[in-house]
Description:
Structural class: alpha/beta
Oligomer: single chain
Largest sheet: 5 strands, mixed
CATH class of the largest domain: Alpha Beta
CATH architecture of the largest domain: 3-Layer(aba) Sandwich
Number of helices: 13
Amino acid sequence: MRDQSLFDKIDLHLIRVLHTVLTERSVSRAAIRLGMYQPAVSAALKRLRELAGDPLLVRSGSGMVPTDAGLRMIEPSASILRAAEVMFADARGFDPQTAINTFRVAASDYLDPLFLPRLVAQIKAQAPACQIEIHPLTADSDYRAHLAQGRVDVVVGNWRKPPDDLHMARLFGDEVVSLVATDHPAVRRGWDQDEWLSAEHIAPTPTHPGARGVVDELLAELGLARNITARCPHFGLIPAMVASSLLVLTTGRQYCERFTSSLPVQVLPCPVDLPRMMYYQLWHERTHASSSARWLRERVKSVAAELRKDAKE
């Protein structure tokens, strides 16, 4: 009877607060994400602590960390929330005009800079009551865990070898080129492989220590290495840095050509014969059959196709 009595005191709202507090590791951040006042989240956390007989979240230095019991609750609570969302959404069918889902997309900023703006615009035009959360792919992003826990619904980016433990769909391939300032010496005289390798390159900050980006992985397979003299975690700022320096950005043509009309930059061929960069969307088995998740993936596919078509015209 004690177990039944305990179960009767737990509702889906409490599970949502539990998962958000444990993953955000902060009552204040959880309150913002939940759209609640902080005292209400604190009161819910107090109830959860009483039900669990455990602090769940404790102070550690200037921040907070889950206890062992709290850590063990993250995955089950995510599973419960995702199951509830899928159960009710699929039971009534997904109608974008009336749906109130929250769509969570994690995306690399190496993509076409118009991708996320157009994706958000399309979702809001077709599903006006739905909410959208855009998550970055950073050094702190464990996208496999986030997909498994339901923190994101789909991940969009480019990988040399996409993970084989997730569902995957190819969005497009893109030629590897270099972006330089219009007054860069290579614009006037061109460059060969050795000159390109020794030029001053700028690259994104690695996602974790020792990590290499797709371009450097490809070069390493050829026994080559370029001269990286600058790194930046904000890929969208790099073209402006290139425009006022001798730095070279090497990435997909579709990305580079978005800046040629707004900045004094020019696209040059890469003198190293590199394969095309491939962009994908990835998702977890838990959302594979969900009608709302399928709808979201179709929107991602549609926007990618539109941008690819624009780039060819």
